[in-house]
Write a structure and sequence with these properties.
alpha+beta; Beta Polymerase, domain 2; 44% helix
Length: 140
């Protein structure tokens, strides 16, 4: 069977259910269809250990295969703090809390639209940077 058996939204539901089944934490789905053409959705989930991340990978792989979807690829298996499962229309990122905080994919992908829409306003006085605000208060 091909990867086109399921639509992206349905694939997201299956992957999220699989992650929840193995107690993944802080599961987040990001719709990136308007931001790039590589995939339609990204799912980010936290595992408490590398062992749990391995279980998350196995469960998602097992449940999508049961629906006739064959993953295109995997990266970061073994003792990795970040494992990626490419399901074509959906990419699943499974990470330890420290890796998730370090790489901050939520900000990267959700911020893309915000920075495009901000149109430079983040440099205006009403959108000052926090450290400048604190510096100005300290000098008063």
């Amino acid at each position: 069977m091909t990867n086109q058996v399921m639509k992206g939204e349905d694939l997201v539901k299956v992957a999220v259910a699989a992650l929840e089944d193995v107690k993944a934490q802080d599961v987040l789905v990001i719709d990136v269809r308007d931001k790039q053409s590589i995939t339609d959705y990204m799912i980010i989930a936290t595992g408490t250990s590398n062992r749990q991340i391995g279980a998350m990978l196995e469960k998602v792989r097992e449940m999508v295969k049961a629906q006739g979807v064959r993953p295109l690829g995997e990266e970061g298996k073994g003792d990795s703090d970040w494992v990626l499962l490419d399901l074509d229309e959906v990419i699943v990122h499974m990470m330890t809390a420290s890796a998730r905080q370090f790489y901050d994919l939520e900000r990267l992908w959700q911020g893309a639209e915000q920075s495009r829409a901000a149109d430079g306003k983040h440099h205006s006085p009403e959108h000052g940077h926090e450290h400048f605000t604190k510096l100005n208060k300290d000098q008063q």
